[in-house]
Amino acid sequence: MKSRTSLAGFALTCNTNGLILQIMHDGIGIEGLKSGISVETLVDQGSCIKLLNFLAIMRSMGIASNWEINFFHEGSLITLRLAGVKMKDRLLVLGART
Length: 98
Hints:
The chain is mainly β. It is about 15% helix and about 45% strand.
C-alpha cells in the first residue's frame, strides 16, 4: 500500500496511437506499466473501447478530461479518472483515483 504522502495517480506520455514513451510518475502501481507497450494492455477488456475513444478525442480535440477507465492493479481492477492533452506528436496522460 502506498503512503499518504505518495500521489495516488500516474503521468505518462505516449505516441498518438497509445504506445507508452515515458512514465513520469506511478504512485498507484499499475500492473505492467512500462515504456514501449500500448496503454491499451493496462486496462480491462470492457474499458478498451473507452480508452481508444479517449485517445481519439485527444488526437482530434487536443484535450480530454474526466474519463473513467478500469486499470489492472494488484490482481484486480481499479477505476481511475483520466485527463490528457496533445503535445505535438505525443499525448500526455494523467490518471488519478476516483
